[in-house]
Amino acid sequence: MLAHPRCPCTRSSLAELARLTARGDADVWVLFLRPEGATAGWEKTGLWDTAAAIPGVQVLADADGTAARAFGAETSGHVLFYDATGALRFSGGITAARGHEGPSAGGDSILAALRGNAPAQDHTPTFGCPLIEESQ
Amino acid sequence: MMKAFANIHGPVLAHALSPEAEPIYQERIREQRHETSAVFFWLLLAQWAFALGLALVVSPRAWNGLSSSIHPHFWAALGGGALLVSAPLICIRFRPDSALARHIVAVAQMLFSALLIHLTGGRIETHFHVFGSLAILAFYLDRWVLLTAAAVVIIDHLLRGMFLPQSVYGVAAAGWWRSLEHGGWVIFEMVFLVHFTQRGVKRTLGLAAEAAASQQALQEGEQRLRLVIETAYDAYVAMDAGGKIASWNAQAEKTFGWSREEAIGHLLSERIIPARFREAFQCGLGRFLETGESSVLSRQIELLAMDRDGREFPIEFTISAIRWGETYLFNAFLRDITERQEHARQQDEMNRRLVETSRQAGKAEVAVGVLHNVGNVLNSVNVSAGIINDTIRASQVDALSDVVSLLRAQNGGLANFLTEDPRGRLVPELLGRLADGLRAEHATLTAESGSLVSHVGHIRETVALQQNYATAAGISERLPAEVLLEDALQLEGAGMVRHGIEVVREFDMVPPVLVDRHKTLQILVNLLRNAKQAMVDNNDRGKRLVLGISRRRGGPVCISIRDNGMGITPENLSLIFGHGFTTKENGHGFGLHISALAAGEIGGALKVHSDGPGAGAVFTLELPPAQTGETAGLIAIPATSVPSAPLATSRGLRSTKS
């Protein structure tokens, strides 16, 4: 997941991420944006701590948004799911609406992929703040 | 007003209201709506604050990389909230009773639902605000307000569902059916809210009608009470805790001479209480206010009052204290008893005289009885004296003297005279006849002198009886009841004989009574005389007087005198012991009245029973029994009153004892 450390809607995305990774059968990384010019530690917010508290989740800083740009993630809460072969199976948001926890099309698709099934959707909209500055 | 009312609630409800109930209903509805508006006044402000807080906490800023700006939600909460709050608050403040204010409140409240739903990203949970708001709007008891609110909700959902689905449902795309579903649930709630709103209106109408009826009844009651107080024969005066007059009726004006205007607001003590009692009055009032204790409250008291001219007069009054909030109200009913006291004094004097007169009359009655009996006996004495006189006048003593003179004249020739002389030979025969005649005279004189002594003895006994009762007045004695009754009968015995009355005695064994025998005899003589007179016209059915003595266990000794005379009508039974009541042509109405008083004085009672005209009557004198070992008074049995049945039998009356 690529996330903005101060996006209010991302709290719901992290909650959904915790629900999806509860099975413990996936390697999970959450990369928090540290925009260019931000001081060190700017990304260490409450959301960082929340993500770090999820079992099996590794939290990293995405300096200057390099990873976000690399993965093409424009919105905070964007999740990319790769299977064991390294193939991208899903890309998008895992909340049903802005700031909404609970079942969603994105979450259901990831769960299906984790069970080895084909996800119903491989792309869903993401609700959150922009990761790549709109002026860029 | 009725037209406006009908416009709001329809003709069905309008015609149910009476003119008295309508303003009550309007006031209650107005109060209800004012309260509801007050709730919305603060609710709208609170919702605005909540929306601002929500925006600040949940989405204070929108981030774009390192840069951020105030989140549009905050501006929506601030600006939208201000708009939604200002219009209804202005209406509530300046047009609180208008329908426009209620509809604007309804619109604002439902748009607040929309704002909150938007601020929470279309969270379904926030949609509950819609249903809560509709429920609160129902307190307006105005179905049209509910319809306005429902219309706003449905239109909002439809429009945002089509153009801003994320705002209302949190999703990028929502089908039209979703808005219809939400609208359907709103209509579902509306059906019940409108129904119960109408029920609420009807219930308010009913309560208004009941309140109007109660109010009218209360007003009538108050008016009646005022009228009663105003026309009361007693003066009514109310006083506050400060001692000032609070109420003053017409009789109070008449009694004390002060008009209502001159009395109310002034100190009661200055208006009606004589100066020398005012200090005590103030002390009593102060003590009651301090301790709650009073010796004059709720009691009937007689005191001196004062009128406007300073004239003092006796009054009778009662005061009650009523707790009136934090203080007291004192109510007093007062009556001028000047006339009553004078009347009572005159009554007491009259009673005293009456009792004295009756006592004298009683003595006279007994004396008349005595003289009557003595007179009868004196007749017999007179007869006996005449016989003795005639016998002595016709005595043959002179003839014997002539014979003795003839014999003395013979001077020694007595033998020849008795044997040879024809006259001498008749002397022995003559002496024999004279001896027979003188013997007869002696017998006659002996018999008549014995009768004379007997009659004189009877006179002495009768006089002694009268003296015995006359000298025993005022002393309670322990006496056998039958002795009292027999003595009374002895005094009235002559009347019984003359009227051919059969006297029957039905005496039980009873203890002696403890009474003043003079008064008791007076009562019994009076009752016997009345019984005798009641049977005067009984010639065709006989005259029967039943004298009874009995006692129930633990009760008084009862002496009953039952006649079979003219009887007493039921209406007269209750009046018969009253002063001045009589059915006799020449009666004064004192006898039974005095007898009843005398019965009370000796600790007894006098009762009467009659089954009606022609059925006779029974008078019962109840007397207190002397207790065993009673030492009060004397224990005396008059020496002249022992005979068990002498009077009745000796005077030719038939007597039976049972």
What structural category arises from helix and sheet content of chain A?
alpha/beta
How would you write the strand order of the largest sheet of chain A? 1-2-3
- Mind telling me the C-alpha Rg of chain B? 56 Å
Widest beta sheet: strand line-up of chain B? 13-14-12-11-9-16
Q: How would you summarize this macromolecular structure in one to three sentences?
A:
Chain A has 4 helices and 6 strands, in the order E-H-E-H-E-H-E-E-H-E. Chain A is α/β, with parallel strands linked by helices. A 6-stranded mixed sheet of chain B has the order 13-14-12-11-9-16, with helices on one face.
Characterise the protein shown here.
The complex is a heterodimer of chains A (136) and B (658). Chain A has 136 residues and is α/β, with parallel strands linked by helices. In chain A, 25% of the residues lie in helices and 20% in strands. Chain A is built from four helices and six strands. The longest helix of chain A is centred in the first third of the chain and has 11 residues, at 10-20. The mean pLDDT of chain A is 90. Chain B is of the alpha+beta class and 658 residues long. Chain B has helices at 2-14, 21-58, 72-94, 99-119, 128-137, 143-163, 165-169, 176-230, 250-256, 260-263, 268-272, 275-291, 338-393, 397-408, 414-419, 427-471, 481-498, 517-534, 570-573, 591-601, 646-650; strands at 61-64, 67-70, 235-240, 245-248, 301-306, 312-324, 327-336, 476-479, 502-507, 513-516, 544-551, 557-563, 605-609, 617-623, 634-635, 655-657. In chain B, the strands form four sheets. A six-stranded mixed beta sheet of chain B has the order 13-14-12-11-9-16, covered by helices on one side. In chain B, strands 4-3-7-6-5 form a five-stranded antiparallel beta sheet. In chain B, helix 13 (338-393) runs antiparallel to helix 16. Chain B starts with a helix and ends with a strand. Mean pLDDT of chain B is 84; it is low at 1-8 and 630-658. Classes of the chains: A alpha/beta (136), B alpha+beta (658). Chains A and B meet through loops of A and strand 1 of B.
